[in-house]
């Protein structure tokens, strides 16, 4: 059986070479490891991805060949080792060097092991914190290296938010996100959930805290405690960030309403809509990836609901024969994901400015299709997990010009602290939740 470090290397190589995502690879690899090794694996993978540019900067100072010329397998072994030296204080230096050199030897031979040994020994001899090793100047270049973000993205955010706000965003993205649960209120109330927590000895040392804004959310630390319970199997909870939960609360489905979600994915929001209406709203789910719709059906059944009607469809054109047939439509639009980079740090190293500039055309097409499906007096909700203005306010402002029959609707009162121009905004550094944009639009009666 592979060790946590060997598994971390395997995952990082798949992420870098095959454009895989870390989360499903971790979910598959973790169960075969002991709990302690599971925690080490998660920290090594996500920590290395979050700090990749910072690690490469430090490696470059002690490596004779430049980082760009180092074999990708050896480079990721060095990153894992450097991360342990610089960001973890409980692992002895000799163990870091030995385990890293052994991995290099088994995969690339003795010469490679000697190279890894030498580089990591030099890093260990630095004996300093990342803060003392990384540039601290108030410049875009220094901020990029210090917080491990691509320079083009740092410059983009400085133009949009200013330097101080950008620095705060980048710093927040280097930290692990909170593990947030959503209680299935169709099965038990938030109060009842608090009561049953005491029945689980495994949670004795866990911290469970109600979320500040989402009405059925809790943060749990450590998340590993969840897997010592049967809550997922019983459908008591789902894992979902607070900002994502808030989007469904802004939709606010009611009994007997017909609700459409046009980009359902695996059902995080659609299952929440079912919970909020106690299964009494008629929800239809569309996505252009069939396997996601299958997973959505399983998610609904786990929570105690029949699988909702689903259609594999590209919602840039309507699969429905009649207009105005839904009371509420939710578009959880594909986006650049810049609001969830702390949760999916590999996206930092794949995203380009051109990707962001391409998104509004797709988002606009989805909105135009959805607009025709909302009945007079109905509600259209548009959300993204992006903090880019082009994908949020700009898309909606242009939509309202083309569709004057729609007007911005007021957000529920408790979300007003997040409101700007009647739009919901959240940011990791301000609110402790993922970065989201959400607009609630009302269709006129005429």
Could you explain how this protein is built, in words?
The chain is an alpha/beta fold and 446 residues long. It has four domains: 4-134, Orthogonal Bundle (N-utilizing Substance Protein B Homolog, Chain A); 136-174, no CATH class; 182-239, no CATH class; 242-443, 3-Layer(aba) Sandwich (Rossmann fold). Helix content is 48%, strand content 14%. The protein contains 19 helices and 13 strands. The protein has helices spanning 4-18, 22-29, 35-50, 52-62, 72-87, 93-108, 110-126, 130-133, 140-147, 151-161, 163-173, 190-197, 231-234, 242-251, 268-276, 290-302, 353-373, 393-402, 428-431, and strands at residues 180-183, 207-210, 217-221, 237-239, 258-261, 282-287, 310-312, 326-332, 374-384, 406-408, 419-420, 423-426, 436-443. The strands form two sheets. Strands 5, 6, 7, 8, 9, 10, 11, 12 and 13 form a nine-stranded mixed beta sheet that branches. Strand 5 (258-261), helix 15 and strand 6 form a beta-alpha-beta unit. It is globular, with a radius of gyration of 23 Å.
List keywords for this structure.
alpha/beta; 19 helices; N-utilizing Substance Protein B Homolog, Chain A; single chain; globular; 446 residues; 4 domains; four-stranded antiparallel beta sheet; nine-stranded mixed beta sheet
CATH homologous superfamily designation of the largest domain:
Vaccinia Virus protein VP39
How many domains would you count in the coordinates? 4
Query: How many helical stretches?
Result: 19
| Category by helix and strand content | alpha/beta
Range of helix content: 40-55%
- Whole-number radius of gyration? 23 Å
CATH A-level architecture of the largest domain = 3-Layer(aba) Sandwich
Q: What is the CATH fold-level name of the largest domain?
A: Rossmann fold
Number of strands: 13
The CATH class of the largest domain: Alpha Beta
Q: N- to C-terminal separation?
A: 66 Å
Q: Please tell me the overall pLDDT.
A: 95
Shape verdict: globular
């Amino acid at each position: 059986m592979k060790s946590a470090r060997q598994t971390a290397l395997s995952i990082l190589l798949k992420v870098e070479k095959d454009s895989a995502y870390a989360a499903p690879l971790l979910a598959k690899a973790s169960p075969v490891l002991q709990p302690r090794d599971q925690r080490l694996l998660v920290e090594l993978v996500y920590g290395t991805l979050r700090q990749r540019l910072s690690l490469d900067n430090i490696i470059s100072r002690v490596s004779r060949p430049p980082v760009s010329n180092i074999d990708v397998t050896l480079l990721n072994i060095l990153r894992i080792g450097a991360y342990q030296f610089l960001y973890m204080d409980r692992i002895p230096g000799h163990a870091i060097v030995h385990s890293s050199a052994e991995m290099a030897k088994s995969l690339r031979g003795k010469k490679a092991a000697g190279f890894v040994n030498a580089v990591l020994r030099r890093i260990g001899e630095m004996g300093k914190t990342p803060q003392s090793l990384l540039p601290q100047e108030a410049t875009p270049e220094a901020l990029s290296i210090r917080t491990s973000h691509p320079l083009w993205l740092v410059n983009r955010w400085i133009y949009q938010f200013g330097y101080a706000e950008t620095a705060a965003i980048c710093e927040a993205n280097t930290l692990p996100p909170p593990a947030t649960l959503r209680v299935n209120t169709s099965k038990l109330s938030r109060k009842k959930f608090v009561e049953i927590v005491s029945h689980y000895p495994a949670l004795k040392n866990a911290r469970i805290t109600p979320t500040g804004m989402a009405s059925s959310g809790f943060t749990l630390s450590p998340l590993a405690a969840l897997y010592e319970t049967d809550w997922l199997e019983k459908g008591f909870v789902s894992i979902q960030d607070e900002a994502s939960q808030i989007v469904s609360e802004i939709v606010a489905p009611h009994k007997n309403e017909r609700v459409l979600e046009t980009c359902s994915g695996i059902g995080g929001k659609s299952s929440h809509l079912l919970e909020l209406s106690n299964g009494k709203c008629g929800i239809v789910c569309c996505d252009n990836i069939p396997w996601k719709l299958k997973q959505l059906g399983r998610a609904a059944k786990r929570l105690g609901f029949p699988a909702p009607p689903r259609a594999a469809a590209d919602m840039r054109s309507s699969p429905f024969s009649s207009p105005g047939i839904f009371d509420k439509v939710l578009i959880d639009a594909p986006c650049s994901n810049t609001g969830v980079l702390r949760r999916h740090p590999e996206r930092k190293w794949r995203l380009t400015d051109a990707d962001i500039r391409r998104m509004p055309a797709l988002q606009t097409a989805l909105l135009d299709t959805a607009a025709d499906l909302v009945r007079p007096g109905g509600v259209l909700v548009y959300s993204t997990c992006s903090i880019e203005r082009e994908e949020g306010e700009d898309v909606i402002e242009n939509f309202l010009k083309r569709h004057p029959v729609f007007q911005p609707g007021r957000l529920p009162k408790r979300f007003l602290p997040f409101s700007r121009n009647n739009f919901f905004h959240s940011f990791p550094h301000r609110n402790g939740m993922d970065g989201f944009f959400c607009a609630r639009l009302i269709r006129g009666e005429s």
